[in-house]
């Protein structure tokens, strides 16, 4: 039986072939290839005799809720490899038992064998209508942008050059819970007492992980294009760089990954036969869609699932297209998977900004800063100093990979190629450098759009020229300043190329990295914690960072709580917290020149609730004192129970008449006694049997010092 039917729709031909013999199947492919050479866009679905015998699987779209009972890796469909003789590549992929899928762009045959297998295996699983191999070019981006503008997924911000705004489904606005799948539970979480909920990692067993994957991914790209994104974290071919391949059915993700990572065919050349991190992402809405698509933003948040398999160097994300749920090269690879790789290879992958500080005598020192969200990490990396002759240059604002060089110093690279920041609160007052960076080649998500074609969010009220201008808020509703509701979602984002930042250091993409002299940990602490202090040693610094906690706002800012965020890695670690702290402690070895560790707090308040420190550009005064400590000035600080703080007169305060030094630097005995008790409770609960000896020793020493206050 041989039948073909052609439905002409635009310039697309759909060719349906039902073949009872191999010869007629080959004839269909001959016709398809002939039409393809004539310029037709041709998705081909070929059903062989073998496939026709398996009617139950081929004639029905796989259910997104079916769970398989076989939970061995061989029985987990999502993780099952294909036999070598089960597929072939022409100008399409022909998979035994599945059929054929056209290669819409690129040549799959030219890719490394491991990449070919990865692409084909997941195409067999997710069943896209075609495969598109990305090259990261401007032309490619322009074509995708044009499609998204036509579909009204993107809107042009006409006041700028090449800026676009996107509004997501209102249900798809936050990062998903990140699960870590390891064979042993205590590879991921600590051995704690019953009833204690670990805060650092969310563990899932491989069997449960397999069930979750198989209930979602089979057939999830039906009717959609699967984009293959080759990307490098770090410069391509760099000695510290890592390569990832992301498969996604979201072209919005393609655009943002092109900004945030280095997407290029050269990645395949650099990879060769090497290993790479496998990233699989789907919006989870096969066509025809079985649920309403809001704002032209496909998603399936009811089934959202994000899981990491560190040992396999694999990341799966389903149901969400927002932020790091889809940009798997960011937090998922650059921190979660990378932190596990770093532990095994003897380096660090940290949630840190990297920047340099240069004094009037042109002495330059490089520093990193690990702060929880909303604590000014980006602003510090892009600081405009208020002191004459000083300058700050940015390496990166979010992620640092740190390794020891042959000279014993710790070197850092920024693995990213862009900035993916929170927009609300950003302004010319808080970060003029970032604001200048956002005037071209950016993508904004869930911000407001003015009638003049400008972006808008909370914090820009005093900087907008026409305060009566009409807007569309992040929900697409008409809005004016003063109206109820928010202009932008509180988690609204921007994606901007790093090369556009005026203060980028000329070594920002150096393959070797830059040598780090100081590591800063900091958070929002309204009471009791000094503006700045230096820890007594490397191990004391690790202990201090393990106790890091910050004030977090809830319910529109009306409710505030202090939350623990050790090392600012609470959401980004992928292995046992105790082993992580021991890894940090173990970096102290003979012959190594370890950076000094400091704690900073820009957010201490007086009894009246007002901030004691002006912050922003004035933070250069704190960095000036830190540089003096780096260079060995022992006369500028005094020891307290928690570390070394500046002597009065040794922190440059000229022109800051309202600053009360004693209030900024005091170490209140009662506050710190209560804090010591709370810290002990936290560490013993969260680390349990896995508390490193070095951490317990530092905790007991600090308790003893505080007891003498």
TrEMBL record:
Q: Enumerate the catalysed reactions.
A: oxaloacetate + GTP = phosphoenolpyruvate + GDP + CO2
Start and end residues of each Phosphoenolpyruvate carboxykinase GTP-utilising N-terminal domain: 118-343
Q: Which GO terms describe its biological process?
A: cellular response to glucose stimulus; gluconeogenesis; glycerol biosynthetic process from pyruvate; oxaloacetate metabolic process; propionate catabolic process; response to lipid; response to starvation
Check the record and name the InterPro entries matching this protein.
PEP_carboxykinase_C, PEP_carboxykinase_GTP, PEP_carboxykinase_GTP_C, PEP_carboxykinase_GTP_N, PEP_carboxykinase_N
GO MF terms held by the record: GTP binding; manganese ion binding; phosphoenolpyruvate carboxykinase (GTP) activity
* Assigned EC number: 4.1.1.32
Top enzyme category: lyase
Which cofactor names does the annotation list?
Mn(2+)
Query: Which Gene3D superfamilies did the record assign?
Result: 3.90.228.20, Phosphoenolpyruvate Carboxykinase, domain 1 (3.40.449.10), Phosphoenolpyruvate Carboxykinase, domain 2 (2.170.8.10)
A single GO cellular-component term from the record reads:
cytosol
Keyword GTP-binding on this protein? yes
Would you identify the family this protein belongs to, as annotated? Belongs to the phosphoenolpyruvate carboxykinase [GTP] family.
Assembly and interaction partners: Monomer.
Entry protein name: Phosphoenolpyruvate carboxykinase [GTP]
Instruction: Name its species.
Output: Parascaris univalens (Nematode worm)
